[in-house]
Amino acid sequence: MAFIAHLSDMHVGSLSFREELILDAIDQINEMGPDATIVTGDLSENGYYNELNQAASYLEQFHSPLLVVPGNHDSRHLGNCCFEELLKERYGTLQVKNQGFKVIGLDSSEPDLDYGKVGRSQQSFMVDAMKNASKEGLFKIIALHHHIIPVPRTGRERNVLSDAGDILMSLIENHADLVLSGHKHVPHTWIVHETVFATAGTVSSFKLRGKDTPSFNTINIDEENIDILLNTADGETRLLAKYENRCR
């Protein structure tokens, strides 16, 4: 049905950023040939124009259709003002023809703040997009930077969406199939009712916890299952989670 690459938290401009890691991930993903590549924010460390411009040069190297949303680091120092100029719209949809899925991207960032918020306007946009996707029989994927459900092994919870409860209710009531996020740099999955939530690690920085390594996720969606795989910078790939595909 669909094969998707999900990467996050490049942190271009950070002292912990490693160009060789993002270039290697780009090569791997291009070789895999996904139907779409989704990038869930924090492309830059400080939101500086030159950092976002450099991040854009990396994204141009992907061969697959892209959906990119900003993170809290991208909205620092007026980065929120130049994101659309250099990269993509801050929120929107991506539908790959004949692949049976729609990606709905949301901007959860707030200028110069670490916490996230979707807000009523984007919530309404998300609900309308999900309803339209349901009418078309499409698999519904939501992408945003901030996590909606707390992620284990990340310490004290501070930066979950401020309107997480309302957004979570909208997702569940409208039968979202998959929700992708980043922000915490720890790969993890949850399932709530029939919705799968998956976070990605940092793809190209050493802003890591414990013995974690930089990584990105790949997601294989077929008629029966949703397989989420973790691809680490040391060349290993392992199954992160496997769920029944309830969108049939």
Automatic annotation (TrEMBL):
Keyword Lipid metabolism assigned? no
What's an example of a GO molecular-function annotation for this chain?
Answer: hydrolase activity
Q: Where is the Calcineurin-like phosphoesterase domain?
A: 4-187
**The keyword Cell division is annotated on this UniProt entry:** no
Record-linked InterPro entries: Calcineurin-like_PHP (IPR004843), CNP_phosphodiesterase-III (IPR050884), Metallo-depent_PP-like (IPR029052)
Q: Which UniProt keywords apply?
A: Hydrolase, Iron, Metal-binding
Q: Which family does it belong to?
A: Belongs to the cyclic nucleotide phosphodiesterase class-III family.
Record protein name field: Metallophosphoesterase
The organism encoding this protein is: Methanobacterium subterraneum
